[in-house]
Amino acid sequence: MNVAVFSTKHFDKEFLEKSNSSYRHKLVFFESRLTEKNAVLAIGFKAVCVFVNDRLNSKVLTELSENGTNLIALRCAGFNNVDIFKAGELGLTVVRVPEYSPHAVAEHTVALIMALNRRVCRAHSRVREGNFSLEGLLGFELHGGTIGIIGTGRIGKNVAKILKGFGCVLLAFDPSPNSECRSLGVKYVSLDELYSKSNIITLHCPLMPQTDHMISTESIGRMKTGIMLINTSRGALIDTKAVIKALKSGKIGYLGLDVYEEEADMFFEDLSNQIIQDDVLARLLTFPNVLITGHQAFFTRSALENIAKTTLANITDFERGLPCNNQINVEIMMR
Ligand code: NAD
After folding, report:
1. How many angstroms separate the CA atoms of 221 and 198, rounded?
2. Smallest Cα–Cα separation from 95: which of 285, 319, 334?
3. If you count Cβ atoms within 10 Å of the first and of the last residue's Cβ in the chain, which end, N or C, has fewer?
4. pLDDT for 160-192, tens place per residue?
5. Is 154 noted as a catalytic residue in this protein?
6. Is 158 near ligand 1, meaning CB less than 6 Å away?
7. pLDDT band at 100 (very low <50, low <70, confident <90, very high)
């Protein structure tokens, strides 16, 4: 099948081309993100393959559909960047990669927790400068600490498993509790209880209208002073301006982010020779107790292999008219 692959980096191309020797789709790579400005590039492609920051709003989907595209193949798990209901209305099929490596994201989450707690980045820069002072590097032990996990699906469950090994007390909130987590000793509680009892809160729920800005001035107010907040899920779960206020007051003691609500025009690009125009991100970068990575939690070799393989298999299933387990079912979502 003719596939227009958007937001292509050299690693996407490498892994997709390698896997494609077994599938033989005609892949055409575009470096740019798919937006309203360049949807025209997809003319003549039955399938469009996109990633987290491509913007498939109603206008883009309508243009794709009018130009003959039938399939949207996401190379990621989250689909908050696709207007799913519009896609359903237009008869577009949307497939995704629901599980490429929950371990990758869970491990990165714990890396952020550890690096923030023990001030690893600060210590590293100091030691390189010949400064061996311990001032400002004081950490705490995770053992015995209470961690609140919001969303215990594939990733949240793996975070729980790792933190269990550290001897943490694990609290969770999820509308669909997970029996595996329960047997690990995770205690499901209300959001209120999770906010008030946790020393660290880590977000692993999807971005949906109900979770958009769930971390707000109001919810931060219910948390312990000095809380460590980690977000490796989707940027807009957090109201970043509210978080900055709480960092300034000391209510939030540590912030670890792999995602940012306005990341689309910045993340995945080398902007080191430019002035960052986003004042909110620029302010975040000034705090000594904030650690930000640029949406790299998924970025492991095995995850890229799984993304490539599953994406191409999804496209083949569609081409052959076979049922695809990874299709997003709009009807179920509308119920
Ligand atoms: P998943 O679907 O397996 O799990 C999501 C869990 O969240 C489910 O158990 C669901 O019941 C729960 N949930 C739904 N609504 C909730 C709410 N209001 N409050 C609390 N929990 C709620 O998804 P996953 O594979 O674990 O991925 C989680 C998120 O991680 C994805 O939505 C995606 O946005 C993000 N992600 C980030 C990266 C990265 O590189 N940073 C990579 C992959 C996924």
Report:
1. 13
2. 319
3. C
4. 999 999 999 999 999 999 999 999 999 999 999
5. no
6. no
7. confident
